[in-house]
Specification:
By secondary structure, the chain is α/β, with parallel strands linked by helices. It is built from 16 helices and 15 strands. It has a seven-stranded parallel sheet, with helices on both faces. Helix 9 (about 250-255) links the parallel strand 10 (about 235-240) and strand 11 (about 260-265). The N and C termini lie far apart (about 50 Å).
């Protein structure tokens, strides 16, 4: 990445929007923001914000960059995730989740505190990422001084280059060590993957040379269950990594273990990108992840366990080759891998649009059907969602936000649930409403 420093700085200085394809291990998530600050592309009193799809990545990157800059976290480098929205006004580099920056746009549609916006891991194409990119494109018309960088290891660069009127593309090679891939003879299973994972990790621990093990599972509960299976081993330090971890537990994950101990980390897909755990030599991939899908029968978005795509599988494999050659053990057959999709379908093409369109209207987009999506979800889908928002009282028949709709935008829920909760709060039944909403959104059984 350092060999490309001058070229990156020059590109960003000359063009308003740039697409950078940075291979895994290139340092794109940690170095580009530093280059821009050090070379005065980010003016004094302003900041560069780098978005991440997950809060775990935003926190870990902020800590890593603050160490490289020999600055205390929260000074020159800060982060915005979840409920932590207060950022040091003097921070020059800010890492934030897509959702947090989207909420910033609700308060300041010009993003006036930032001079550069980096959309990292754009290939994940969450609904928040797509909305953010579309809104930033609108913002560029009013802020010619704002610089935007779209970056990832596996995006289709021409898609984003064409979206931003043919902006330049730069490819930066990464440093990856070879990783041997081992396939299972058993087919992918959504039922027994936890037991198979425990069996595989125990086998690796008993037979393989020293080195950390990173095992990919589906849910935080899966990770905690697997950790319990290793509590009686004296030569293992077993940890879990998922989006529900409190920030004070991240430090253990990134610290070195004592001699004679093997670190084993059970993680959800939050460890796929932007996170490098020290000492990992072996990766075990269950081949599954939770994906949001819109159920037209129930008129609700649900999370279902499904097979991952080739892009995710290769990202997981790459975690084993960051510091030395490694091994990747896949709990699915080679034929199944070949049948995987190349990449995931953008969330905006498979999710309910009510909340997203409500946010767009709150941001002043009078006609969501004319909004420039990276990939449009279709006029029929937009029209049906608008009709639903009118019936819920979130907008009026002219498409304008109502006072109730303004309250609904504050809740990160499908508007039908936020309307239900707000109504129940007026009746002093808020706790019951929240509990019922949580059960309605549960993907599996609610009883054990």
């Amino acid at each position: 990445m350092y060999a490309y420093q001058n070229r990156i700085v020059s590109m960003v200085a000359q063009h308003q929007v740039n697409v950078i394809v940075g291979d895994t291990g290139s340092g794109k998530s940690t170095q580009i923001c530093q280059f821009l600050v050090e070379n005065d592309v980010v003016p004094p009193g302003s900041a560069v914000v780098c978005t991440q799809p997950r809060k775990v990545a935003a926190i870990s990157l902020a800590k890593h960059v603050s160490i490289e800059l020999t600055s205390k976290l929260g000074k020159a480098v800060d982060y915005m995730v979840g409920r932590r929205r207060g950022v040091n006004p003097s921070a020059r580099i800010v890492f934030a989740t897509d959702r947090c920056l989207l909420d910033e746009l609700l308060k300041d549609d010009l993003l006036s505190k930032y001079s550069v916006v980096i959309i990292d891991e754009a290939h994940e194409r969450s609904i928040h990422t797509d909305l953010l990119i579309g809104l930033i494109k609108r913002c560029l018309l009013r802020r010619p001084d704002l610089k935007v960088i779209i970056t990832s290891a596996t995006i289709d660069p021409t898609l984003f280059s064409n979206y931003f009127n043919g902006c330049p593309i730069l490819t930066v090679p990464g440093r990856m060590y070879p990783v041997n891939v081992h396939y299972s003879e058993q087919i992918l299973s959504t039922e027994s993957y936890v037991d198979r994972m425990v069996e595989q990790v125990k086998l690796l621990h008993d037979t393989m040379d020293p080195g950390g093990i990173l095992a990919f599972l589906v849910t935080p509960l899966d990770c905690e269950k697997c950790c319990e299976q290793f509590t009686d081993l004296d030569d293992v330090k077993c940890l879990s990594l998922h989006g529900q971890l409190p920030p004070d537990r991240y430090q253990e994950l990134f610290s070195e273990v004592s001699a004679g101990l093997r670190k084993i980390v059970f993680a959800t897909n939050c460890a796929e990108t932007s996170i490098t755990l020290p000492g990992v030599k072996y990766v075990v991939d269950c081949g599954l992840a939770k994906e949001s899908q819109y159920d037209t029968t129930r008129n609700a978005t649900k999370l279902v366990i499904s097979a991952i795509n080739k892009s995710s599988a290769n990202q997981r494999k790459g975690r084993a080759g960051r510091i030395e050659s490694g091994e990747c053990f896949r709990l699915y057959t080679e034929a199944e891998y070949e049948s995987f999709k190349d990449s995931s379908v953008p969330e905006i093409l498979r999710a309910n649009l009510r909340l997203s369109l409500l946010q767009l209207i709150a941001l002043g987009v009078a006609d969501p059907s004319s909004f420039e999506f990276v990939e449009s979800p279709g006029e029929a889908n937009i029209r049906n969602s608008i009709s639903s928002l009118i019936s819920l009282g979130a907008i009026n028949s002219q498409g304008q936000l109502t006072p109730l709709g303004r309250q609904m935008t504050c809740l990160p829920l499908d508007p039908k649930y936020s309307r239900f909760i707000l109504n129940c709060c007026d009746l002093n039944l808020g706790f019951t409403a929240i509990a019922m909403t949580a059960m309605c959104q549960q993907g599996g059984l609610v009883f054990f």
